[in-house]
Amino acid sequence: MGAYLEVESAVYKTLLESTRAIPWKIDWAAARFAYIGPQIEGLLGWSQASWATVQDWVDRIHPDDRERVVQFCIAQSQAGVDHEADYRALTCEGDYVWIRDVVHVVRNEEGAVDSLVGFMFDISERKRAEERMLQLQGELTELSFRDGLTGVANRRRLDAFLDAEWAVACRERKPLSLVLADIDCFKQYNDHYGHLAGDACLRRVAGLLDTAAVRGLELLGRFGGEEFLMVLPGTDAAGALERATLCLARLAEADIPHGASAVAGTLTASFGVATLLPGPGDDLLALLETVDRCLYRAKQQGRNQVVASQSPLPSHA
């Protein structure tokens, strides 16, 4: 009988050690490895003999994963709950490999935890695929928020950004400024130079506005047609007016020919500027209507100029 059990044990050991999964066993009371498969050396480079205590396992977990994984595994094991944990494990060469530990809790006759047995799996390829998928999803999301012609934010992105920054401005009592730009006589530009040249002009103006006036967590987007909106969180009325004036000057410096313009021989734009420190009763739509009226006045007054709201802050602010 003893010989039979020895043979059977050897068969099981051979089966375990012939799989790619790495079997292991930990004595709970002693916090020591009773066994770990030789496959561990092929995966991480550490010899079987180097896996003596639970601390050896802990020390080889990536520092960013260590506390989360160790606390989770201890809590689940103490509760007698089988569990799984994903983490990065240190190789003997200093690199990291993604591991999934599948753990089964073994209890003694009194119901207390006797040992832990489980398997380590190399999930590095799966993690790389997941990370690539997340990267692609991020790229797709970015594309869905970008204007296909000019490369700046599209209207969908602008609306989402405006809503979020309006909420922040209301909560933190900070000013929110908008600069609305419209290329002067753009229909005439298209008629004179052709739509392909018009598309190239839109791209050039978008790039100029973006580099000239948009900083940090601010946003420039295509509001519609030849209109561009700058959203400037935390910027006061003076700062917003300065940005719009800078854009006007940079566009003049660009000296883009416009032979069909009723304003000048080069491309120009009109700008509306509005700032609000939100208070009770204020809403975002009113701010948008204000900046639109300012742009309209700039157009009425001869174009190629900046018109700012005369009341940057509400009377109750």
Word description of this protein:
By secondary structure, the chain is α+β, with helices and mostly antiparallel strands. Helices cover 46% and strands 23% of the residues. The protein contains 10 helices and 10 strands. It has helices at 2-17, 39-44, 54-59, 63-78, 124-144, 155-172, 186-193, 195-213, 237-254, 284-300; strands spanning 22-27, 32-36, 83-90, 96-107, 113-122, 176-183, 219-224, 227-233, 269-276, 306-308. The chain has a 5-stranded antiparallel beta sheet, sandwiched between helices. The chain has a 5-stranded mixed beta sheet with strand order 7-8-6-9-10, with helices on both faces. Helix 7 crosses helix 8 (195-213). It is elongated. The termini are far apart. The model is unreliable at 1-5, 7-12 and 312-317 (pLDDT under 50).
Strand content: 15-25%
SSE pattern: HEEHHHEEEHHEHHEEHEHE
Quickly count the domains.
Answer: 2
Rounded Rg: 33 Å
Number of helices: 10
Question: What characterizes the major β-sheet?
Answer: 5 strands, antiparallel
**CATH T-level topology of the largest domain:** Alpha-Beta Plaits
Q: What's the CATH H-level homologous superfamily of the largest domain?
A: Reverse transcriptase/Diguanylate cyclase domain
Structural class of the helices, strands and pairings? alpha+beta
Strand order of the largest sheet: 2-1-5-4-3
Mean pLDDT: 90
